[in-house]
Design brief:
It holds the Pfam family LMWPc. The protein has 161 residues and is an alpha/beta fold. The protein has six helices and four strands, in the order βαβααβαβαα. Helices cover 39% and strands 12% of the residues.
């Protein structure tokens, strides 16, 4: 099952979700991430990459990218699209090929503001922990909950956890 995590800049929450899901269930899921408006030369946030590495999760291949890559005709077909920031949730999304299920799982931006680095690192750790908990629920769902006909409701139900 292909899952796309979307945020505005694709540098923190969506990158964390992509790396976590790919590490947690590579046999059942292939995760991607993208931003609705990544800045020119946008890169994944260094603290996010550090947290992933500390957890033993590969950061190879992680990069910030536009969601336009996934709306193209030759893009991988997505089964589920999850917005992880409130800004992206309110935006008009591209017409995704195949009409995938979608859900919004909102998280505060750990990179926002000008807090000291230690405080930001803690925000990244907490965000990664919250994502891990919700992704754990997703990967442990029985197969019938992940079928296309019921996936929309299942993904939205997980937003409440």
């Amino acid at each position: 099952m292909n899952v796309l995590f979307v945020c505005t800049h694709n540098c923190a929450r969506s990158i964390l979700a992509e790396a976590l899901l790919n590490a947690m269930a590579p046999d059942r899921f292939k995760a991607y991430s993208a931003g609705s408006r990544p800045s020119a030369n946008q890169q994944p946030h260094p603290l996010g990459l550090q947290m992933l590495q500390k957890a033993g999760i590969s950061i190879d291949g992680l990069r910030s990218k536009s969601w336009d890559e996934f709306a193209a005709p030759d893009a991988p077909h997505m089964d589920l699209i999850i917005t992880v920031c409130d800004d992206a949730a309110g935006e008009v999304c591209p017409a995704w090929p195949g009409h995938p299920a979608s859900a919004h799982w909102g998280y505060p931006d750990p990179s926002a503001g000008d807090a000291p680095e230690a405080q930001k690192a803690e925000a990244f750790r907490k965000t990664m922990h919250m994502l891990h908990q919700r992704l754990e629920l997703l990967i442990n769902l029985p197969s019938d909950k992940l079928e296309k006909a019921v996936l929309q409701g299942t993904a939205q139900e997980l937003a409440a956890h």
